[in-house]
Each structure stands twice: as structure tokens, then as C-alpha cells.
């Protein structure tokens, strides 16, 4: 049994596949629909490394308490990974999760065959 926490609820279910379900997709899209979170995700994906919250705050010009809320939402949606390094928590974009999201959108909304969508987003 796997416990999954998304942006809005705690869902416990038996995971028989690695694909995103409808609730995961809508939660991730809702999280990315906020301009600050979208900019944060773009920044972290482009850096290709982990970044401390202070650097994110300075780069995006977002107050740290506001940034903490955004980071928590993105982590609950599995879009970011947080790793402790000494006294700091380092945040990085989970590009694998974003690829899964994009694959799901291509398959469900654009009627792209699953194998073709997976090839397009392989990375």
C-alpha cells in the first residue's frame, strides 16, 4: 500500500502502475497554474541543480514566508524534491514527474498513443 499526498487531500490506495491518476494531474496543474509557482518551477528546472530557499527567494523576489507556502504545495504535488544538506534544505525540480504529467496530457487530451508520447518525452 502506498500513501500519496497531493495538494488537497491524503489519498491511500494500492498502486499497480506508475502513471498519474486524474487527481494527481489536476493537483499538479492547479499548482503550476499559480504564476509564482510556475516561475519557481522554470527556475529550478533550468538550474539543473538543487537550490536553497534563500536563493530562490532572492532570484524570484518572493518573500521567504510566501515562498515556504509555495514550496510546500509543490512538494505535496511531487513536482519538487527537497533534500537536507547540513542546515539547509535544497530544492530541485522533479523533471521526471513533469514528464509524466506531460505524457498524461498528450495521451488524454491530444489522443497521442502512449508509446509515441513516451518517446517524445524520454529524457
Spatial separation of the terminal alpha carbons: 29 Å
Mean pLDDT: 84
| CATH topology-level fold name | Arc Repressor Mutant, subunit A
CATH superfamily: Winged helix-like DNA-binding domain superfamily/Winged helix DNA-binding domain
User: What's the CATH architecture name?
Assistant: Orthogonal Bundle
Low-confidence stretches: 9-18
Give the CA-based shape.
elongated
Structural class: alpha+beta
Helix content: 55-70%
Supply Rg. Answer: 15 Å
Beta-strand content = 15-25%
Question: How would you sum up this structure, described in words?
Answer:
There is one protein chain. Helix 5 packs antiparallel against helix 6 (114-120). This protein has a single domain (2-93), classed as Winged helix-like DNA-binding domain superfamily/Winged helix DNA-binding domain (Arc Repressor Mutant, subunit A). The chain has a three-stranded antiparallel sheet. It has a two-stranded antiparallel sheet with strand order 1-2. With 123 residues, the chain is α+β, with helices and mostly antiparallel strands. It has six helices and five strands; from the N terminus they run ββααβααββαα. The chain is elongated.
